[in-house]
Amino acid sequence: xxxxxxxxxxxxxxxxxxxLVVNTMRPCMAYGDxxxxxxxxxxxxxxxxxxxxxxxxxxxxxxLSQQEQIKELKSRVESISEKPVxxxxxxxxxxxxxEVENYLSSDEVREKLGIGLPDIPLLERSRTEADICxxxxxxxxxxxxxxxxxxxxxxxxxxGGRLQMRYQYNDKDGDFGGVDTQNIDVRxxxxxxxxxxxxxxxxxxxxxxxxxxxxxxxxxxxxxTPYKELNAxxxxxxxxxxxxxxVSSQRLLFQDRAIASDAFGQYRDYGLDIYxxxxxxxxxxxxxxxxxxxxxPSKRITGKDENLDNEIMSVLSLRYNxxxxxxxxxxxxxxxxxxxxxxxxxxxxxxxxxxxxxxxxTDIIVGVIDFGLRYKGIAWDxxxxxxxxxxxxxxxxxxxxxxxxxxxAGYFVIPKKLEIAARxxxxxxxxxxxxxxxxxxxxxxNYYFRGHRSKIQADFGTFITEQGDEQDKRENKYRLxxxxxx
Length: 486
Fold this sequence. Notes:
Strand order of the largest sheet: 3-4-5-6-7-8-9-10-11-12-13-14-15-16-17-18
Number of helices: 6
CATH topology of the largest domain: Porin
Distance between the termini: 148 Å
CATH superfamily of the largest domain: Porin
Helix content: 10-25%
Structural class: alpha+beta
Largest sheet: 16 strands, antiparallel, barrel
CATH architecture of the largest domain: Beta Barrel
Number of domains: 2
């Protein structure tokens, strides 16, 4: 019996020990799995840390590079800020405007930007792009109001016109039998067209003079402009002699030119002119030949201008513009030049004309030197003329020398709107004859509604002619004129 109890106790001890051993081993196995998992996580963290260190090194390199770029940009900004600011002059603005217009006129650009005016079917020869034209209304253009242009830019037609209506009262000298007169007249009426054909460098211009019942062509010529330094003009046009005569009557400081300019100017003629503006417009030259007849009285009889003495007139002209391009095609500074502009010029004409009439058997040499200045609404011009008339035959009489000059100035009291002006001019028709000098004193005021396209001018002038030992002959002129371009 004791043996049975002992066996039972022994079995119970064995079972208890087995349970204790199993329970003890289970936590050890769990701890081992957790340890392996922790080791794996540690390894991943070490790898991630290594990658982050590499990224930090790369970011450090990038940061250093960006610092260098920032330093370089700062230095460039400082260098640019130290440079003087260039003021855009009217000439630069005009050039930029011209370049922008040329750029926008190309088919490729117009297609990209989706701009342009509708096609004009009546102006198309076919539906090819080279033939498609645009029409523009340009009321603010200096000369033209209507412009028709091909997309290629090789063809264009510009149309314009202008009208000058004038009231004039002449207070004549009663001591010489003069009678006062007054008149309302169309001083000038012009219709003109210009443009280019076949190429942007081949240009044309013609104008119709309609200020009388005898309508006739005023100008008609072609000019080729391949380079700034070398150009050519052929046809009937103004002789490039004196500046005031070359200035259009639309852009004169006064309603008419000075008496000296009328006496010695060479007006229009048939001819060929080779000219250019090298050195960025600082120099301008003209070498021209003309028929020499001009608009002479023979035209009314024969229907054409005839070269009565069968001799050609030649003209040489040289001009220096110290401050760059000078707009001497305008007698005012309506553009309000921001910087000083000046010009010095000299011209000589061989076998020239006197008062637009060429004399038979007489060699005429006429020269002119001139000066012009423009600055912030101030326009100052002066010209001095010299002429020598030499008879070709021995029995033609003695040589005759004459001279004259004018100086005039204008100032915009209100920029681009209200201008005051004054002029003095003198002509000595014969240096060997005393007391025959002619003088002009003129003062005026101009108001511009839309530049030279719409303006009103008023002036008063006293014109004196010496009469030898007798009292001088005087005439006063009161003029009021309105001009409109369309």
